[in-house]
């Protein structure tokens, strides 16, 4: 997997996960896989994020693990060294993207304006995250920019749920969506892997 476009093609839904306990990483990844989801975005919002990536990369190599919420250049090589196969950033500052491009893994950079999307296209990147999707205009916004920017594809994230995911996925410029609804905290803490598998299966069927 070498390009952002390939990241968008992994699964109809990218589960965006924040873990408190790295011991949950492997059973979680296995539950998602059983449900038919082939990737997981492990965010670096918690100290468990990096060790969780390490566990998944080593023990569940069938799922493609990415690192999310990458906001600082110092996180970039640590995430890749831990085993992240792609990086996700909520925004797209030049300084951060320079560091991300230097490590050579694909990335989904967050955009919420036409100019940000065009700036990424100038870097040769044509697939990106649309964040935060719902507050930034949601489905109507993505429809409106498909005309002037027909060559760009998006992973909308932020406010996506089972109720609105299908309307995003129906858009020609949406490759997949991202969201945290597959991995609610109570199910993680309770180790309810069967229920997470069910949520994953419903999400996989959206594709
Ligand atoms: C993200 O970082 O991509 C979002 O926090 C996920 O958004 P959600 O919790 O609204 O799904």
From TrEMBL:
Taxonomic path: Bacteria, Bacillati, Actinomycetota, Actinomycetes, Pseudonocardiales
Superkingdom of origin: Bacteria
Broad class of enzyme this protein falls into: lyase
Name of the featured protein: Bifunctional 4-hydroxy-2-oxoglutarate aldolase/2-dehydro-3-deoxy-phosphogluconate aldolase
Family: Belongs to the KHG/KDPG aldolase family.
The protein's Enzyme Commission number: 4.1.2.14, 4.1.3.16
GO terms, molecular function: (R,S)-4-hydroxy-2-oxoglutarate aldolase activity; 2-dehydro-3-deoxy-phosphogluconate aldolase activity
Pathway(s) annotated for this protein in UniProt: Carbohydrate acid metabolism
CDD domains the UniProt entry points to: KDPG_aldolase
InterPro entries: Aldlse_KDPG_KHG, Aldolase_TIM, KDPG/KHG_AS_2
Subunit and interaction comment: Homotrimer.
Species per Swiss-Prot/TrEMBL record: Saccharopolyspora rosea
Keywords: Carbohydrate metabolism, Lyase
NCBIfam families tied to this protein: eda (TIGR01182), PRK05718.1 (NF004325)
């Amino acid at each position: 997997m070498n390009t952002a476009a390939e990241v968008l093609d992994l699964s109809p839904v990218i589960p965006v996960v924040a873990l408190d306990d790295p011991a949950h990483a492997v059973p979680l990844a296995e539950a998602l896989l059983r449900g038919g989801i082939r990737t997981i975005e492990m965010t670096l919002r918690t100290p468990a994020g990096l060790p969780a990536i390490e566990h998944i990369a080593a023990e569940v190599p069938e799922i493609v693990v990415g690192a999310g919420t990458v906001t600082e250049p110092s996180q970039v090589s640590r995430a890749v060294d831990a085993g992240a196969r792609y990086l996700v950033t909520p925004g797209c500052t030049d300084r951060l993207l320079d560091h991300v491009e230097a490590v050579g893994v694909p990335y989904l950079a967050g955009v919420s304006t036409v100019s940000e999307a065009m700036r990424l296209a100038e870097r040769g990147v044509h697939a990106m995250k649309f964040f935060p999707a719902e507050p930034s205009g949601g489905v109507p916004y993505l429809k409106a920019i498909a005309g002037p920017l027909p060559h760009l594809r998006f992973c909308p994230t932020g406010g996506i749920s089972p109720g609105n995911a299908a309307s995003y996925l129906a858009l020609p410029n949406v490759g997949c969506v991202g969201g945290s609804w597959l991995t609610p905290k109570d199910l993680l803490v309770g180790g309810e892997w069967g229920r997470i598998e069910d949520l994953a299966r419903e999400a996989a069927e959206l594709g």
